Amino acid sequence: MKYVLNAAGSLAEDFRPAPDGLIVKRAHQVLGEAVDLLERIVADDGGLLAAIAAGTFGLMKRPPDGGKGADGVIAKADGYRNPAADLLATGDTK
Predict the structure, then answer these.
(1) What is the pLDDT of residues 37-46, one digit of tens each?
(2) How far apart are CA 67 and CA 65, in angstroms?
(3) What are residue 90's phi and psi, to 5 degrees?
(4) Beta-sheet strands, E only, within the chain
(5) How confident is the model at residue 61 (pLDDT cuts 50, 70, 90)?
(6) What is the pLDDT of residue 32?
(7) Angle ∠(48,45,87) on CA atoms, nearest 5
(8) What whole-number distance in Å separates Cα of residue 41 and Cα of residue 16?
(9) In terms of pTM, does the model score above 0.70?
(10) 12-34 residues labelled b (16+ CB within 10 A) or e (exposed)
């Protein structure tokens, strides 16, 4: 793989996908599907944690109050603060 990348040199600088080509169409499709999914998650009463618990983003399901990453898995320094965890703990995710 590295051999091919080195051989290509600065080819990427000159690469412009056709506006109506396969790459651009697929990019628009994937982006549209991602936006639709996020809109459904926002509209759902359970929000992001419920989506994770339901396995929306992969095969593994994680309940909001358990699973890997629960307290005690990684030691935290005194004064450690995670603003995202604070928001999730208060339920103020909007």
Answers:
(1) 999 999 987 8
(2) 7
(3) -85, -10
(4) none
(5) confident
(6) 98
(7) 45
(8) 34
(9) no
(10) eeeeeeeeeeeeeeeeeeeeeee
